[in-house]
Amino acid sequence: MKKVLVLGATSAIAQSTVRLLAARGAALYLVGRNAERLDAVARDARTRGASKVETEALDLDDLAQHEALVERATVALGGLDGALLAHGILGDQEAAQRSFAEAEKVLRTNFLSAVSLLTPLANRFEAQKAGTLVVISSVAGDRGRQSNYVYGASKGALSVFLQGLRNRLARSGVAVVTVKPGFVDTPMTADVKKNALFATPDKVARGIVRAADARKDEVYLPGFWGPIMFAIRGIPERVFKRMRL
Amino acid sequence: MELNSWGRYPRVTEQRALPVTWTTEPLPRPAGGGSLLPYGQGRSYGDSCLNAGGSLLTTARLDRFLDFNPATGVLRCESGVTLDAILRLVSWQGWFLPVTPGTKFVSVGGAIANDVHGKNHHRAGTFGRHVPRFELVRSDGSRRECSLEQNRDWYEATIGGLGLTGLITWADIQLRRMSNPYIHQETIPLSNVDDFLKLAMESEQDYDFTVAWVDSLGRGRNLGKGLFYRGNHAPPQFDAVPLSKSHLSRRSGLAVPFDFPGLAINRLSVAAFNWLYYHRQRLNRTGLVHYDPFFYPLDGVHRWNRIYGRRGFLQFQCVVPANDAGTAALKEILDRGARSGMPSFLTVLKMFGDVPSPGMMSFPKRGMTLALDFANRGERTYRLVEELDRVTREAGGRVYPAKDARMSPESFAAYYPERERFAKYVDPAFSSSFWRRVNGAG
Ligand SMILES: Cc1cc2nc3c(=O)[nH]c(=O)nc-3n(C[C@H](O)[C@H](O)[C@H](O)COP(=O)(O)OP(=O)(O)OC[C@H]3O[C@@H](n4cnc5c(N)ncnc54)[C@H](O)[C@@H]3O)c2cc1C
Q: I want to staple A96 with a disulfide (CB 3.0 to 4.6 A). Which of A150, B182, B325, B440 is the partner?
C-alpha cells in the first residue's frame, strides 16, 4: 500500500497504523471528523516520513459524500492502491435496547457507512485490477452476546459483506483484509476495566500492516483471539443462550 | 491502572488517571474535584510524579511528532513523546539528543519539568537549555508559548518546575549533530574520591561525557573506589549519507517477570555484583561502544525496579560544592552508605559544570553529584536517607526532587531559596505529593 485512504484516521488504531505506513514513505489521505485532531495526525505522519499527507474533515455518517470523497482522495494522491476503514463506534447497548434510534446510529456508522465507502472503492480497485482494502471489524461480530449484540451485529454484518466482496474481487487481484481485533486499549474502551486480554493500538497496528502486506483474508489481532473465537463459535446455541457473556 | 513512580515508594493507590490525548483540547477536569498533576513515564523515583488523592494527567497518548527540520536539527513534538522515540526518528538522520538522562524511557514533558541532566552536564548543561520553546496550558484554559523572548518568566518557572505550573503540550528541542552512533570510551580505575576529583576536573576539557561508577562497599582508603568513564562521539563515519536504520538496537525484550523477594539485595549480592562489575569492566579500557549501552546500560532489562521487591527502593541524589566542605560531605555520605548495612546497589558519581540553566528551580549546580539507591527496609532506610539529606544541607548542597521521597520541608527551603518566587507560578489547580510534603502540608 503506497497511496492509502485512511477513514477514521484519528482513532487510536488508525493513528498507530498511519505511523507505520508513514515511516515507509507512503502517501496518505486522512479523513476524520475533527480538523484539529486530523492536523496533529497529519503532522506526525509527515515528520515520520510520509511522502505526502492530505486531510479532509468529514462526518462519515453523511453517506452522500462518499463517492466524491473517494474521487478527491484519488486525485489528491494521484491514484489509490489501499484503503483502511477504521472508523466505528461502540455505542451504548442498553440505550440501543431501549430505542431503535440508538441502534440505528451504530448500524449506520459501523455497517452502512462501510458499505457505502467500499462500493466505490471496490469498483475502482476492481477496474484497476489492483489494491488492498483493509477493514476493521471485530471479534464481537463472530457471535451475538447479550452484552453488546447491536455493536456485534453491525460488525458481523460487515464481516459477511467483506466475505462476499473478497469472493467477488479475488479474480481481479484485489485483496480484502478483514481485521478482527479483540479488546484494544483505546479511548473507545476508556471506561472498560483493563485485563490481560487488552492489546495496545501499536501491537494491533503492526498486525494490520503485516496482514495487509501478506494480503491475508482474515486476521484476529492479537492472534490468540483466533482459537478463543473458534471455541466460542462452537458452543451450541442451546448452551450459549444460558451463558452470561 | 496503578500509576507508580520508578522507586515504587511511596505507593499511592488513591489517585485517578485522566488521559490527555490532544494538545488542542482543554485540560480534563476531575469529576470529584481534587488537584491535577501531569504524569509522563513515571521514571521519577519518589513522589514528585505522584498526587495522592488527586488526578494524574497522563501524557502517554500525547506522542506525536509535529515537525522536524533535518537541516537545523530542531524537532517539535508533543510532550508525551519519549526520548526513545526521538532517537528512533533522528539518530539515523545524523542527530542526537543534546542531553540525555540514564534511561531513554522518559517523556519530553518529564525531562523539561525535572530539567534533567546527563553525562555531559559540564559541556551542555541541562535538558532545558536545549528547549528553545514550548506551550504551557493552565487550568484556567490559558495557553502560553514560552521562550526566552516570550513569557520568559513562565519559561523559567516551568523548566525544572516539577509539573506544577501547568501542562506542557508541545516543545521544540534543539538536537545535536551526531555522525557516528558509537562512542569512543575510556575506562579508568579509581581508587578513591580524591582520584575522582582529579580525573573529573582534568577530563572536563577534552571529553563530552564523563561519569564514575563507585563500589558502594569501599571504605577507608577505598572510599570511592570504582571506575571512571569518559568518552566522545567517535569521529564521523560518513559525511552526507544517512546512517542505516540498522544501528537502532533491537529491544532485548528481557524483562524482570515478577517482584524479587525483598531480601535479594543484600550485602552479599551487592558485594558480588560490585566485584564482578569492577573486574569485568577493567578488561576493556578503551574502545568503541554503541550509544545505547553507553548511555542506557539499564534499559536492556525492562522493569528492573522489580529486583527490589514489592516494597520498592529509594534513590538519593545530591549535589555538593566542589570545595573542602563538599568533599568532606561526599565522603561522609559514601561512608554512611557503606556502614549502613543496606548497601546501595548502584552508586554513580559525576561532576556538574557551571553552565547555567534557564530553570528557576533547576537542580544541577557546579559541584559533585552522587546518586545512591537503597532497597526499602522501612524506618531504617528512611532514617539513613534523612541523615544523608542533613549532611547535604549542612555542606551547602541540595537534593534532586526527581529522586527524592524523604527530604524535609526545612531542607527544601534551604536547597531552593527560589521556591517563593516559583510558588507564584504554581497553577492553583495543580499539586503533587512531593509539593505538599516539602511545604509541610501532608
Ligand atoms: C534508570 C534511570 C536513570 C535516570 N537517570 C537520570 C539522569 O541521569 N539524570 C536525570 O536528571 N534524571 C535521571 N533519571 C530521572 C528521570 O530522568 C526524571 O525523573 C524524568 O523527569 C522522568 O521523566 P518521566 O517522563 O518519566 O516523567 P514523570 O516521572 O512521570 O514526571 C516527572 C515530572 O514531570 C512532570 N511532567 C511530566 N510530563 C509533563 C508535562 N507534559 N507538562 C508538565 N509537567 C510534566 C510531572 O508532573 C513530574 O513532576 C533517571 C531515572 C531512571 C529510572
A: A150
Distance from CA of residue A223 to its chain's centroid? Answer: 17
Are the C-beta atoms of B166 and B157 separated by less than 8 Å?
A: no
Which residue has cell 484519488? A74
Specify whether A29 is catalytic: no
Q: Is the CB of B99 under 6 A from ligand 1?
A: no
Cα B114 to averaged position of ligand 1 atoms, centre (Å):
6
| Sequential DSSP letters for chain A | --EEEEETTTSHHHHHHHHHHHHTT-EEEEEES-HHHHHHHHHHHHHTT-SEEEEEE--TT-GGGHHHHHHHHHHHHTS--EEEE-------HHHHHH-HHHHHHHHIIIIIHHHHHHHHHHHHHHHHT--EEEEE--GGGSS--TTSHHHHHHHHHHHHHHHHHHHHHGGGT-EEEEEEE--B-SGGGTTSPP-TT-B-HHHHHHHHHHHHHTT-SEEEESTTHHHHHHHHHHS-HHHHTTS--
Q: Residue B194 and residue B222: Cα distance in Å, rounded?
A: 11
Could you tell me if the CB of B106 is within 6 A of ligand 1?
Answer: yes
Interface pTM, i.e. ipTM: 0.94
Q: What is the pLDDT at residue B240?
A: 47
Interface contact flag, A40 B21, Cβ < 8 Å: no
- Mutating to test ligand 1, I would choose from B3, B6, B8, B43 the residue with most ligand atoms within 8 A of its C-beta, which is B43
Question: What is d(CA A107, CA A99) in angstroms, rounded to the nearest whole number?
Answer: 13
Give me the residue from B22, B68, B89 closest to A40, CB to CB. Answer: B22
Q: Are B399 and B318 in contact (CB under 8 A)?
A: yes
Identify all chain A residues contacting B2, using CB atoms and an 8 Å cutoff.
Answer: none
Q: What integer pLDDT is reported at residue B265 of this predicted model?
A: 74
CA B68 – CA B172 distance, rounded (Å): 9
Determine the residue of chain A that is closest to B1 in CA distance: A194
Q: Are strands B347-352 and B209-214 parallel, antiparallel or unpaired?
A: antiparallel
Strands B143-147 and B226-233: unpaired
Phi, psi of B319, rounded to the nearest 5 degrees = -125, 135
Q: How far apart are CA B262 and CA B289, in angstroms?
A: 34
Q: Residue B114 above 90 pLDDT? A: yes
Question: Under an 8 A CB cutoff, do A194 and B68 touch?
Answer: no
Residue B21 at interface with chain A, using a CB cutoff of 8 Å? yes
How does pLDDT run across A90-129, given as a tens digit for each residue? Answer: 999 999 999 999 999 999 999 999 999 999 999 999 999 9
| Average pLDDT of span A214-219 | 98
Which residue is closest in CA terms to ligand 1's atom 39? B109
Name every residue whose Cβ is closer than 8 Å to that of residue A62 and which is 6 or more positions away in sequence.
none
How many CB contacts within 8 angstroms connect chain A with chain B? 32
* Least CB–CB distance from B65: residue in A37, A47, A194: A47
Q: Which of residues 71-130 of B touch A (CB under 8 A)?
A: 78, 89
pLDDT in the model for residue A141: 97
Q: Which amino acid is at A137?
A: S
Residue B134 to residue B130: CA distance in whole angstroms: 11
Are residues A125 and A131 in contact, defined by beta-carbon separation less than 8 angstroms? yes
- Whether the pTM exceeds 0.90: the reply is yes
* Whether B64 and A194 lie within 8 Å, measured CB to CB: no
Cα-Cα end-to-end distance for chain A: 38
Mean pLDDT of chain B: 92
Lowest mean pLDDT of A17-21, A134-138, B14-18, name the range: B14-18
Is B237 in CB contact (< 8 Å) with chain A?
no
Asked if the Cβ–Cβ distance from B19 to A44 is below 8 Å, we say no
In whole numbers, what is the pLDDT of chain A averaged over residues?
A: 96
- The set of cell numbers assigned to B207 is 571529553
Burial of B441 (0-12, 13-18, 19+ CB in 10 A): exposed
